[in-house]
Write a structure and sequence with these properties.
Elements lengths: L5 H15 L4 H74 L22 H6 L3 H7 L8 H8 L6
Length: 158
C-alpha cells in the first residue's frame, strides 16, 4: 500500500491550496473524504465477504466430517442390532425346536381395543373461576322466561 508520511501529506496540501484555491479547497477536501470513506467501506465489505466465504467452507468441511461420523455410527449400530436379532432368532428357533417349551400362542394376549376417553364437560366448566364466568357473561343458573324478563326490565316499569 502507499506510504504517506506527514511531510508528503503537507506537500500535497500545499500544492492543492495553490492549484485549487482557498475558496474551493474545503468542498474538494469534503468530496475527497467522502470518496475515501466509500472506498474504505467497500474494502471492508470485500474483506467481510471473503471471511464469510472462508467460514462457510470450514463449516461445510465440518458438516461433511459430522455426516461421515454419523454414518459410521449408524452402520456400527445397525450391525450390532442385526447380530443381536440373528442371535435372538437362533435362540428362539432352538427353544421352539426343542419341544420343551409350552404353547407360546396361549401366552400372547390380544391387544385391548381402543376406547375414546369420555370428557366430562360439566367438570371442565366447573373448573372455570367464577370471576371469569362473570366477565365472559356465562350463565350460572337457569332462569325461566318470566324471571329473565323481570331481571332485565327497566326500572320504573312494574
Amino acid at each position: 500500500m502507499l506510504d504517506f508520511g506527514f511531510d508528503k501529506i503537507a506537500l500535497i496540501g500545499a500544492v492543492a491550496l495553490i492549484v485549487i484555491g482557498p475558496e474551493k479547497l474545503p468542498r474538494v477536501a469534503r468530496t475527497v473524504g467522502t470518496l475515501l470513506g466509500k472506498a474504505q467501506r467497500y474494502v471492508a465489505d470485500v474483506k467481510a465477504e471473503v471471511n464469510r466465504s472462508m467460514e462457510l467452507e470450514e463449516l461445510q468441511k465440518m458438516k461433511s466430517q459430522f455426516q461421515s461420523a454419523v454414518s459410521d455410527v449408524e452402520q456400527s449400530v445397525r450391525q450390532e442390532v442385526d447380530s443381536a436379532t440373528q442371535a435372538l432368532n437362533q435362540t428362539w428357533s432352538d427353544v421352539a425346536d426343542d419341544g420343551s417349551a409350552a404353547d407360546f400362542g396361549s401366552l400372547q394376549t390380544p391387544a385391548p381395543e381402543y376406547r375414546h376417553p369420555k370428557k366430562n364437560w360439566r367438570l371442565k366448566r366447573g373448573a372455570t373461576p367464577l370471576w371469569f364466568k362473570q366477565k365472559a357473561g356465562v350463565r350460572r343458573h337457569t332462569q325461566s322466561g318470566a324471571a329473565r324478563v323481570a331481571r332485565f326490565r327497566p326500572p320504573g316499569i312494574r
